[in-house]
Design goal:
Strand content: under 5%
Distance between the termini: 30 Å
Radius of gyration: 26 Å
Low-confidence stretches: 1-14, 284-300
Helix content: over 70%
Number of domains: 2
Largest sheet: none
Mean pLDDT: 75
Shape: globular
Order of helices and strands: HHHHHHHHHHHHHHHHHHH
Length: 393
């Protein structure tokens, strides 16, 4: 090797001679990236077949099934069957979830598509579905795989909602009569002099707010309930919009964060069972006083699903993911998201610590979803998405 070649190798960051063309450098980098990938092992197929979100859900299901078998006083299989029948065929959580998810997805997809259509790029809308496929049969095949892939990636989130039904009926059997409402209420009295829910309720009933809402023929509860129920469709609708537009990196991170949030929230419900001020001080919680903290009757059978606030957590995740993936949706949903935060307190569903815990949980889930997926992909022998993009650049 000549001296000038040695100098060039030392000076060029890639270690290539100056005579090497840019295209060749990229090819070299791709070869290096492939060579750096771990060699195939027999166990890697497990990581390729199963998504890490599915492992989290399967772990949760295993825990809850074990608890149902081992904990005395757990709900019977008949009661669980009735609950699932109601939720899927009546007007329960899952029925409303599927209904509003369909409506909300269409609306949010429309908002997501408008910027492209407005810039004369409407033809690019289907790129996330078809990719580089040309011709009717190739595009039909691409559409089929796109649909199956979306359903596969979406199943863990749907299952997460089903696990919620198992969880909320199991908590009383595990924790008995243990409730932390008294503790949370005492904290709020010490910090604010009253329940945070009561304070927000009074603020929202200021004269000018009531008058302004009355102009539209609405009531306070109409607005807050509409905002509160939006979490049912907002998160899954954003996920579908990301998938439709082909933004797989953002989609994968968002779906992973949603499942992490749900799993940790369900564990939180077991560790810190709370029913919420609306039920503890039912009928008079606006005038609650420290003396009323002893009234804990008739609430033992309520859902103990307040800490952390999953409404808060999933709303915060939506805002983070939409800011990263589809910026127009962030601005569209921001007022609704703020209304969700207010509604959690206005309706008496949560204490202030529930809201703080929800925000912390969402931020942690979003942060942890990325390294978890990268670790999982390395175990599968794949290049993480960022490294793959750099190799293909």
């Amino acid at each position: 090797m000549s001296d000038d070649t040695g100098t060039a190798l030392a000076e060029v960051p890639t270690g290539a001679h100056q005579s090497v063309q840019l295209g060749e450098l990229r090819e070299i980098e791709q070869i290096r990236a492939r060579n750096a990938a771990p060699r195939a092992r027999w166990w890697m197929w497990l990581f390729r077949v199963i998504r890490f979100e599915e492992v989290i859900i399967l772990g949760l299901l295993a825990l809850f099934v074990s608890a149902y078998l081992l904990v005395s006083g757990a709900p019977s299989l008949d009661s669980l069957e009735r609950a699932f029948t109601y939720n899927f065929h009546g007007h329960g959580t899952m029925w409303m979830f599927l209904l509003w998810c369909s409506i909300g997805t269409g609306a949010l997809l429309l908002v997501a598509m408008l910027p492209l259509a407005g810039k004369g790029k409407a033809r690019k809308l289907m790129h996330g579905v078809w990719g580089e496929a040309t011709g009717p049969w190739a595009r039909l095949r691409a559409t089929l795989f796109w649909g199956l892939g979306g359903i596969r990636a979406y199943v863990p989130f749907l299952t997460c909602m089903g696990v919620y039904e198992l969880n909320k009926r199991l908590i009383p059997a595990i924790r008995g009569d243990t409730l932390y409402d008294q503790l949370f209420a005492k904290w709020e009295y010490a910090l604010f002099g009253d329940l945070s829910a009561a304070i927000v309720h009074k603020w929202m009933h200021a004269g000018w707010i009531t008058t302004m809402i009355g102009w539209f023929g609405l009531t306070q509860i109409d607005i807050h309930e509409a905002a509160y129920i939006s979490y049912v469709y907002a998160a899954p609708a954003l996920a579908m919009a990301l998938w439709f537009l082909g933004r797989r990196t953002e989609f994968n991170r968002f779906m992973g964060a949603l499942v992490i949030t749900g799993a940790l929230a369900y564990i939180g419900y077991v560790l810190v069972p709370v029913v919420g001020p609306k039920y503890v001080f039912e009928g008079r919680w606006l005038e609650a006083s420290p003396g009323a903290l002893s009234f804990m009757d008739d609430i033992k059978a309520r859902n103990r699903d307040c800490f952390p606030s999953l409404h808060t957590a999933w709303t915060t995740l939506f805002l983070i993911a939409s800011w990263k993936g589809i910026r127009p949706l962030f601005w569209v949903y921001l007022p609704v998201g703020i209304a969700v935060y207010i509604a959690t307190l206005y309706g008496g569903y949560h204490y202030f610590p529930d809201i703080i815990a929800g925000h912390v949980l969402a931020i942690f889930a979003w942060w942890s979803a990325k390294p978890l997926r990268e670790w999982w992909e390395r175990r599968a022998g794949k290049l993480p998405e960022l490294e793959l993009k750099q190799a293909q650049a």
